[in-house]
Amino acid sequence: MINSIDHLIVAVKDLDAAEKNYKKIFGIEPVWKGEHKELGTANVIFNFKNTYFELLSAKGEGLGAELVDSNIKKNGDCFIGLVFGTEDITSAESILKNKGHAVTESAEGVGKNSQNNEIRKWKNIFLPLELSRGIFSFIIQHTHGSLPKINNYEESSINKLDHVVINTNDPDGFINIYEKVFNIRLALDKVIEHWKTRMLFFRLNKTTIEVVEQDHNDEDPDKLWGLAWCVDSIKSAHERLTNEGVEITDIKQGIKENTLVATIKSHTNNVPTLLIEHLNK
Questions:
Q1: The domain spanning residue 203 has which CATH number?
Q2: Could you list the pLDDT tens digit for every one of the 281 residues in the chain?
Q3: Residue-number span of the structural domain to which 248 is assigned
Q4: The model scores a pTM over 0.90
Q5: How far apart are CA 278 and CA 13, in angstroms?
Q6: Separation CA 207–CA 219 (nearest Å)
Q7: Are 124 and 175 members of one domain?
Q8: How many domains does the chain have?
Q9: Shared-domain flag, residues 182 and 268
């Protein structure tokens, strides 16, 4: 039913400033700058090997503008959305309904690239609270047009999403939805001794949804937290980012064997951000 993390959404107040920040972080140019007039939003998109990253800001009035403004009012610029991809949205809708979930019928969306007037179209299903568990998420199938691809990434540039981190106070409930309803593979469920914490690892489209058990008293059980990105050479990436004026920690060995990591401390628009190089790739 779900075969990918289609894209990630970060809400920002100043779209131009956020674009400049992420051009520095990613080391690549955006592939799309557009707007959703019916939603009252504008966006900038960066494309990677296994997902895309969307900066989203309010521009006018609409449900999208309300979503962005309400999140920014509460949290400032922040990571707000996790979007799942499917190749057959009609089937996905049917599966969810047959499992007893009151999802709405799929709706069509359209985006226009302000740089060249290209059009992309899609269909999506917004997930009810029982499935979203407090995270803004939906399922999407792209039906017309596509994002330009980047054929070659420099060794210092980010090239794909390694994992997305979600905090939960209900890991068993998380499993019930993500494995049993969404049919996303649960690759590992264990207590990580380094943190004395139960963690879940779900795998799809060469990336991981990393779920961390964390006590919190919020009404919603799940919270989007941060992102980890792959680079071919973390040494080159560290040098590039330092030269760009981005604050980044020293490179160190990761908790996972045969990895090197560094944390980006500035220019992230409040999204905890880790760089990772896999040494045995």
A1: 3.10.180.10
A2: 999 999 999 999 999 999 999 999 999 999 999 999 899 999 999 999 999 999 999 999 999 999 999 999 999 999 999 999 999 999 999 999 999 998 989 999 999 899 899 999 999 999 999 999 999 999 999 999 999 999 999 999 999 999 999 999 999 999 999 999 999 999 999 998 888 899 999 999 899 999 999 987 778 899 999 999 999 999 999 999 999 999 999 999 998 899 999 999 999 999 999 999 999 86
A3: 158-278
A4: yes
A5: 34
A6: 28
A7: no
A8: 2
A9: yes
